[in-house]
Every structure is written in C-alpha cells, then in structure tokens.
Amino acid sequence: MKVCGYAAQQPKTPLSQFEFERREPRDFDVVIDIQYCGICHSDIHQVNNEWEGANAFFPMVPGHEITGIVSDIGAKVTRYKKGNKVAVGCMVDSCRKCNPCINSLEQYCVGGGPVLTYNDEENIDGKKITTHGGYSNKIVVDENYVLSVPEGLPLDKAAPLLCAGITLYSPLMHWKAGPGKKVAIIGLGGLGHMGVKIAHALGAEVTVLSHSLKKQEDAKRLGADKFYATSDPRIFHTLAGYFDIIINTVSVNLDSNKYLSMLTLDGAMVLVGIPENQMQFAAPILVGSRRSIAGSSIGGIKETQEMLDFCQKNNITCDIEKISIDKVNEAYKRVLNSDVKYRFVIDITNSLKCNNK
Length: 357
Ligand SMILES: [Zn+2]
Ligand SMILES: [Zn+2]
Hints:
With 357 residues, this protein is α/β, with parallel strands linked by helices. It has twelve helices and 19 strands.
C-alpha cells in the first residue's frame, strides 16, 4: 500500500517528506492509522548514524513511540479489530523461539535480536525488507507486537510511554521499587520525568539527582520527594549509602564511584542510557556492600501492556509538547539542547498529508 512519512535520505540530513510502500496485511497483520509519534533521543542518534558498528538503513523513517487506530486487519487476527486504539513501541517482531522470547522478554531476543520498528530489516515471505517507523501515516505490524491503549489514556500523551515509559517501568519493577524503597533518578529529561512519575506511583521515595537546581520545582510537581544538584560535591557525602535503586538516564560519563557510593547494602545502579566511553569503577565499592551495576533495555510486549494498564490506573501520562511534522527538524535541535518539557509528540493526523493517495 502507498504510504508517506518523513525520512532522512542520508545520515545527518534534515528529514523531509518521503512517499513509500508498506506491505498489504498478511494473515496476522494489523494496519494502524498513526495519529501520534513521540520523538526519542535515539531517533536523532540513528538519523545521524552515531551508533558505532550499527548497520544503518537509509532512507530512514524514524519513530518508535506510536499510537493510532486500527484501520484494517488480516484474515486470522484475533486480538484487535477495526477502530481499536493501539500502540507500537521499539520492536515489531523477534524470533519467538529463544529463551528470552518464550519468557516474554523479546527485547533481549538471542535468535537474531528483536526486529526494531525502524532502521532494521524484517523477513517478509523470505525477503529482507527495511523497517520504517512512526513518522508516517500508516504502519503494518503483526498483532503479537501491537499493544492495546486502555480507554482513558489520551493517544497523544500516551505515545512516549512506548519507549520512555517502558524504559523506566521495567527496571523499577525488576529491582522492586515500592513502599519503603528509596529510588534516585539521575537526569530529569524525557526518560527521567517518566521515572519520577512511575516510581512515585509505585510508592517509593523518589529523589532526582540533576546537575543544577533549575528543575527542582518541576521535579516536585512530577512527584519527586527530594531533589539534589550534583554540582554540589557535599551531596555525595550526605547521601552515602542511602539509595536502594539508582537509575541513570543520562548518556554522559559520570564518576561512577561517587554514585555507587550512594547505594545501600544490595543496592543497584541501573543504566538505561549508553554513555559513549567505557565506564570505570573501583571494585571495593561494589564488594564492600554487595552493590551491583546493571543495565536494562525497554521491556517485553507483555510488560509493555502491563505498563500501559498501570499508567491508565494511576493517571500517568507524559508531559508533552505537540508539534506538526514540518517542525521535526527544529524539534531535533531543541532535544539536543534539552529544551523540551519533556517529550515532543508529532501530530501525524493533522499535519502529514500524502501526495501518493
Ligand atoms: Zn526511544
Ligand atoms: Zn528470540
């Protein structure tokens, strides 16, 4: 079927309108009329081809925070029908056979890895087809990789839950954030602001660690109990041994030892961003208090659905700035300057007009 979107034709080039084709729905496919798509920082990394060793596919239509309405279904689809509110996140398929896949951890698929929503290839009837993401008017996805958006969650403010939301929900659940637990979130951006809201709803005491005090009022409004500026070296002394969980959402290199020292016995520091350089830490800081350093990547399909249901029950959505699709290149510049509260969401329905209908 003929569709359109916004694509980068080459690495580092501005995005512009791009007419392309998607497959007609196969037996288990769902066709989604996309209404909204969030802008994730990783969209910019991939458009700029900044991930070393990664194979990039151009023209590239980014976008993996997708919400919309089912407009057509394949003959054997049972989970969705026309008119359903649905969402698609960072992956559209996986091997479905390996241990992680069988255990609903498709994001860690070892049978070739999950098929990413864009900038990847999927196997369609024996042919390798480049995947294109949510900066487009329609997407066709196997029903097992489509999420249901619960009634009451607005599609615009829900879109960033599909990456930013699940990226924080999954580690908070895995490391058991809840009443009596002290959680620190490093960085209050798109990811961090979701971490504050979710950890607060789980009943944990939430602290934001930010470079300066600039975002203090905002953090409190989002649900943070405490706020510290890491530019003040005294806080590392004050908070030594304090946190059960520290989630690091920033992709810059921090002095790991200082942060690890803020963990209590059995505490864990979890990375959800990927700093450019290798990390270094002093082993005694881990050994002396059975602390750990860990990483976490998005969430499986089952857990992503749980997260959407949790957000609906707890009235959690993203704080967004809605833009028309022709403003996407400007929005990229502002994301790089951390000048957005806290996620751009593209209003696809009202701003993307295809020429190839
Ligand atoms: Zn993302
Ligand atoms: Zn697998």
